Amino acid sequence: MDDLHLNALAWSPLSNKAPALETEQPSTAPLTEQQALQHQGDHALIEQLVHTLDQQSLAAMQPVAVPVFSQVGQWAELFCKTINQADFLDWADARQLDFTRMQVRAGRLIAPPHTFRLADDSGWWKHATPLIAIAQLVDPTDQGMPYLGDRITNTERSLPLERVLAFYGYPMPANRLQAQAIIDELQALNAFPGFDGVGQSKSLIHAERVFQQQDFLRLADALENTATAKVQLDTDSMLARLYRQAQELLQAIVDDNDLSPLANVPLQHHFDATQGVLRVTAQGDGAQTRELVPAAPDERWDRLAQICEKIGIDIYPDTGIPLLNVLQAYGIDHPVRRAERDQLILRLRRAPLAPLSLGLKSERTLVELDAWRQYIGLLNDCHAMRTALQGTIDKGSLEQLDTMISADPDTLLRRVQPAYAQLRELTDDPAFVAIRTRAGADPASHVLLSATGSIGAYGRDGIWMSLTEAVTDNHLLAVKVAQLAKIAKHTGGQLRSNSDVSLVQALRLYQIDVPATLEEARQTLQRLAVSQPLRNHQKHYWRALKPLQRTHPPGWTLSHLERQWVCEIIETFMQGRDEPLFEYLSRPLLAGKKVEDVRAEADLLLTRLLAHPQTQQLGIHLANRVQWHGSHASETSSRSSRDALILSALILDLDPQFATHPQRIKHIDWCTPYYWGESVSLIRSHIERSLTGLGECNAALAAHLLLSDKAPYLLVRGVLDSTPGLAAQSWVLLRQYVTHLEAGMPGTSRQLSHDEIMQVASLPPKGTWKAFLDSPDAALPVLDWAVANGVLVQKPRYDIAAANIALQALNSQRKCLGDAAQAFAEPVVTLRQTLLAEPAPVTDTFNADIAGLFEQQLVRLQSAYVESIQYWLSQLTLREREALEYGDVTFFAVTLKGRIARFGVLIQARFYSDRYCFECFPKHLLIRRRRDLDTQDLPGTSAPHLDWQAHAEGVAPGPLEQANTTWAVTVQKLNPVLPAPDTLPPLDDNGLRVPRSFDSPRCRALATLVVEHHLLYDAHALKEKLKPPLTRQSALEADDAWAAYLTRLKP
Length: 1051
Hints:
Among the domains are: about 30-170, no CATH class; about 400-530, no CATH class; about 715-795, no CATH class; about 815-875 and about 1000-1050; about 875-985, no CATH class. About 50% of the residues lie in helices and about 10% in strands. It contains 41 helices and 25 strands. The longest helix has 30 residues, at about 845-875.
């Protein structure tokens, strides 16, 4: 079986390898039909939005019932399917989350009173990737995507008005004129505006908002000048433009009509927007006002009335617009007091321009929508298969593999339904109906046809009956059955006349080996439990600099000259700015963030960084100069290739010589001896600090970008600080599997946890993973391990012989550790079990056999502990290992009131000026550095910060920072000691003296002293209890101290 998550990289693994069915009809509506349905849905939504926006008062959270076939409706349904995915609901229900107030926002799940972050340990991150990605597409301004589904009463699938507008690139109207601008555009287009290649909406609302901001500045100037009663609007805002048009119409109407009641009497006139009349006032004493309306309104009059209805203010022929009218048009209250006026002036001048949503057409196509549906369907199918397989295992038999599962309609059901339909043509054939009727088949029963050609149904008595012989006797039916049997081979070996899919059928469709034993079933269950990574080419951040596949054309990566052009563009773009490019572009995104959140949200933040306007401005400069498209040449949009150029610019600015040192960033080489045995967090912190000129959060994001290609294993989530890098054989397996995943699709390993990767990598290798282990790419981690463990001397290159030596040493260590794990897992054989299994009377000989049996168990346990301790010693840093191998080593026990604790021991090593102290807990396979004791003279030292319970009772030791200080313990020196060797081995060609700690005699002697002279010290006294002759009765009734002792020693 190929690893399921590697199959999942194709998003639609069901249709990739299965050949087309004979005479198979399309299983989904043709694309043109889907487009027609979407057009109808969008048209219905436009009518609803026009009606909603035409209201006097608008609220951002005002619900809008979204037509299901509109574009936003289909994506909202996808979000609904995603947030109701079975694994997420199980997780949410376990925490009793409130779905009525739940929303996905800015990478977080908000379900008051809880807020789950990608950086926390709640498990939210395991479900977050598809939810965040789809929420961003539906809610591009990140206002928060609410829960949709059956857990709440929102049966109409309504969304807030602000979210619906943002989906189509519109802002929430800030005033009536902005709402009117949106209405006019929707009615004129009879469609929603699209997005350009940069991802910006093509709507006119963007220009309208800019012009309105300019109007606000002129309004603020007019308010400040108390002598000014009018505002001069010289912009192209809707208000200014329509007001000028209305003035021209009003003047034309006045010019064409004699409005003077008396000659030589000046007149004043304006158009009253409220009454829809022309008001004419004669100046002078006894002035009168007349309201005029044409007897037969012409086109100019109607147009004037329409404009006034839109802008809602009176029209005057004079230059400028009355200040009060401008305030009225923009819905701004007239300030009465001076303080109110000053506040309004300040607000108008500082009015922020809310960012428009960014949406890329290619990311919201029907093709992408269908791909997302299949991915979520894959998650649902995996959950269904796990549930059914777990039930089968719990029953202890594989007979339940034919149980039916809840198959997803977008994956398994879509795959089988066309074939099922052809079977129904057979079952509806009158000849077949006659056969099943004669045979006494239940009319309500489904019919099952297998790939072998057998066909059957349930009888009226509920017992399954075969119809194969009767059907094959009919020549025409036999031909159809033969054809259907061929089709069944591509639908998991089965065809049904209903819509059911069995577990075994689903396993075959996903190309998973059907388990033949319960152990194989458990391994399959483990594979199914691993997260299914999301395929995303955009996560290959280095695609313009390094090919994903060796077979890719050279032109798919930037040439040396093109990289020089990129650097020149960066220099021009950053001219006048005294900061790195990455700092400048990422700063707006990271304000107020914590560094741990940046590390956890790095991929999400890089996506937002690419979408930011100033980043896209750099992308335009790059695309204009560097005519490169690479693997994106087939795409209709240039967005992906432009993003790849932006990423290459960021990488080149951070690491210009990226190709020269593949395992180095700046001056940090994480494979050097300095980092052997160190934690991932320390290595990453050093890399981040080496990126000078960047803030802490900016450096964390930049390091993520660089390490995504150079060392993706350093980005795997959940690697504990106690996990030593490079020197451990588990680290070899991690690096190999991460390399394997990243070769299939970059970014995959960042969607899995350390435990998930190690779980699958430790299973018997199959498929592409097995092939990878035999490839040259799998050798590099082994060679690095061999160098770190003193098996090989570090060289620029190694021959086949060196690789074989390294692999042989690694396999030898793995075998020893496997034997140790098996010894730990073996149950303790008690004295009672031994006596009951022996029918012969108890004799002196039998007493000796019993003693020998327990001695044998003790020796196996002792050997297992020695191997384990020696392995953990090999994972310490190089200087620590040198001190243990070549220095003076002394052992100390923790005591309390004369009692010596046996489950823990302190080890102090001195080598030249270096001095180290370690705390060793063999039962928990833990050796940790105690820096607080490095320089102390331990004998007789009072050490209240040592964990007495861990040392004396064998309980798991707590973190050092949480040490219990209530015990008045002291430290006592133990014998014997390990003196420094008389002579030291010579330095190698690199000036190093690397010990082979994992199998050196010195470390074996150290581990043996810890186990024999300390951990198992009490075993010597217990041996004496088995020496006196035992009777069967006394042995059965006595306390089995030996078994209790061995059981207590087990890890």
